[in-house]
Amino acid sequence: MRRTPVRLLGRPAATAVAAVVMLGLLTPAPGPSGAESALPAAASESTATVFYYTKTRNWSAYRLHYAADGGSWTTVPGVAMEAACTDWVKQTVDLGGASGLAATFNDGSGVWDNNAGKNYLLGTGAVTVKDGVVAHSDPCADSGTEPEEGGRTASVYYSTATVGWTTTNLHYQPAGGSWTAVPGMGMEPACTGWVRKTVDLGTAASMLAAFNNGNGVWDNNNGVDYTVPAGLTTVKDRKVTAGAADPCAAEAPDTQAPTVPAKLSASADGVSVVLTWDPSTDDRGVTKYQVTRTGGTKGAAVTDVGSTVYSDTGLEARTAYSYTVRAVDATGNVSGASAAATATTGEKPTAPASGKPLGTDPRKDPVYFVLTARFNNGDTTNDRGGSQHEKSGNAANDDPMFRGDFKGLVDKLDYIKGLGMSAVWITPVVLNRSDYDYHGYHGYDFYEVDSRLESAGASYQDLIDAAHAKGMKIYQDVVYNHSSRWGAEGLFTPKAYGVRDTQWSWYYDERNDGFEYDGLSVEPKSGKSYYNGDLWSTAEPSGNTCVNWGTPTGATSPEGYRIYNCQWPSPTSGMFSKAYYHNCWIGNWEGEDSRSCWLHDDLADFNTESTPVQNYLIGAYNKYIDMGVDGFRVDTAVHIPRTTWNRRFLPAIQERVTQQFGTEAAKNFFVFGEVAAFVNDKWNRGSVNHSAQFYTWKERKEYSADDEKAALEMYDYEQQLGTGSQPTSTNAFLEGNTYHAPDHSRFSGMNVIDMRMHMNFGDANNAFSNGKDSDDSYNDATYNVVYVDSHDYGPDKRSERYAGGTDAWAENMSLMWTFRGIPTLYYGSEIEFQAGKKIDCGPTCPLATTGRAYYGAHLAGDVEASDFGTVASASGAVADTLAKPLVKHVQRLNQIRRAVPALQMGQYSTEGITGSMAYKRRYTDTASGTDSFALVTVSGGATYTGIPNGTYKDAVTGDTQVVTGGTLAVAAPGKGNLRVYVLDLGGRNAAPGKIGAAGPYLK
């Protein structure tokens, strides 16, 4: 297959480059400039020397099967590779005029390196393939000539614990000498977490150094080259220690292999097979697993996997497959093979899932948040009121809790697009089960979409595809922390005591073994869709752990009926297995027990440190990734330890997206967590473990291999360090007027909702001040999700939807759409829907009286959007809705934001600026040639000093100002209004001038 030729990058100038990372996978730094980086194009190379890492394969022979770009494949199994140096084989390929090659590797006897079903795409020159990672260097090259007599050497040890590289290169320049050729010399493994290289300095006393992964990703050291003296030096987490002790001296060589993976199981789903197994243990830690598949006509395949769950897709129909798994540690020691597990595939689906994420930078996409069941009703046949329909008062309003659906949302995507919103955050889609579960947060079967949301021709896949066809993203709300009180189907579901006597027959349905609950289907005996006969038993279940099963208590129900033990799910009753659920009630919301106890009796708290639970959830959410969703909003993220997120769930997300859609899609798959902190402090009551910004970072030290122990160790370690010793970042801030490449090397992979701004949006100026104050403690605050109110709270932890008035709403919106972060709007806020109404009161009041009321009446009629923020036509009630003043306001804000890249992805600064809500923003991307610089003031006037001279054009009024002395004064535009003066840099970076038409606030 054809591809873009690979071009090796020269060493970038230290002041102009920083590595970019998602979940430890670093992306290439910007291309360099200057004579130092001038290298011949890869296409001028005529050969590629391919090095393949053997330690974790241990094959008896190695073959390279390849095709030069535009050429034919070699005859299977390919050409034999020859020994190169310890743990490496190599083969030099004549490419002629080709700029690269596609390649696979095998043992010559039918076992292939599967690389997740994809060919390796290799460039020219020296190319390494190590455990699925392609890099560019010669791993067998030594450091050069022997030192001259009396010459100096530098032995450098580099810590790889926080960069996650499988290949490390040292690029260096002895004092007074020349830089090595990019990417430098390959470093060799020293001991767990360390690589090393000894280099000849000649007469020099030191050298400048930089480290990279051989593939264009650099440890930038915050823009400064490392200075390494002669002798033994360690470099760890950007700290250089000269004259250090050998970090590997006290550590015996690691020769112990991990334990054999246990309890491997395989289950087929169509032409896919899902594997799960218990994790292996190792004295130094397991880094990955090798899954070997046999069966079918394509031969055996070996795939590297980072978690203990793997979905093998695209298999042959009606075919038996066998699998074994081996564990690999950091040194490359490989365990024995697990017992085999087999599965036979079924029929090939007639129409495979068509979804594919849009894969663009999430900061470009303002978010519209809907409760799917309350937004718009496209199909009345899937409406369901549930057991609380009468009691809640919903029946009297003809307003079933499950009313809106995917069909209704598909029908009104043009309304959302017409507002200018290009991402839709929807509430959880998994099958729910409780008395009042329309919101989706009481998950029961995480592998099934709730039937009350789907219709013929309007499945969840149809919604995803319909949104993508309009250039809109779908962010799925996901829950890892808890299930419904009835457990999780396919993992663990408890049985409760229930006798159908004269007192309780109204409550317990008669058991029907032929009926399976799906939330929608009506059980014929009871006439209910919320049938519960499968949940209750008078006979004590086998293996029951609930104490005093079925014995009467001294308590009675509100009706005066006798209550029995084990009649209701409870964490302290012993009803829930500790292997799957925690067994306590939460006591301290900012304490350690917040990660290990139940929040509510309808929120059964998963034991997320348990491997079976991790496998269950990873497997479930892989299904939705495969459908092409664009990101996950993570509910109750704070109630799962950061170690578990960073070790298990976040890497599994990245691994799956990468496997299915590639690295660029994985980099832009947007994960944003709810880390609820309802205070106005920078840190949540002084607890770093319960603050939003904490979750945006990787760990700073290694903890126990046991996830439960690691969670406690991390909690204690970080609490003792305290708020003053947490990492900081400049990723959101300009350096003067200059944009700098962000350093994401310590990014965890989880972005967050900006809780501090949310809590302070009673006043926009207060939200702005609080937001600025926290931004250095996030890994990158430009990815923060920013909203005024939501389905949970309004500002200041109010239980009502925001009711500050239209002018205040306009001001809040003007700030959100131009300040750093991703603006997010809760459905209906564009017309101040249900302003001041209590957001949620459960079944104690009708939904129609709350902030979760049904919105569809305001959407009746037809609407067609011609572009984001532009409506081509509208009729009926929706036309009236679109005429509201805040609708006009948000439409134009979106038009302006989409036209000015600095407002989407830019860093910001308030340096040299006077004004209450005033700032400058810039975004620069050398790859696309983008350079966007904007001066913003909201409501009040501002004076900007020290800014670049040139012509500035206001995107709101079209006013033009020429700056010659570095100063621009802007008069106050009025409450809710703003000014956005964009520097005209010409060409593709020309200032757009006035964008859109004057409206009620932007004028």
UniProtKB/TrEMBL annotation:
SMART domains to which the protein is assigned, alphabetical: Aamy, CBM_25, FN3
- Region of interest (Disordered), residue spans: 340-362, 377-399
Question: What keyword terms does UniProt attach to this protein?
Answer: Carbohydrate metabolism, Glycosidase, Hydrolase, Metal-binding, Polysaccharide degradation, Signal
Q: Which SUPFAM superfamilies match?
A: (Trans)glycosidases, Fibronectin type III
One Pfam family named in its UniProt record: fn3
- Stretches assigned to the Fibronectin type-III domain: 257-348
PROSITE patterns tied to this protein? FN3 (PS50853)
The record's section on Gene3D superfamilies has: Glycosidases, Immunoglobulins
Keyword Transmembrane tagged = no
* Origin: domain of life: Bacteria
Signal peptide span: 1-18
Q: What does the record give as cofactor?
A: Ca(2+)
Q: What is this protein called?
A: Carbohydrate binding domain-containing protein
Report the source organism: Streptomyces silvae
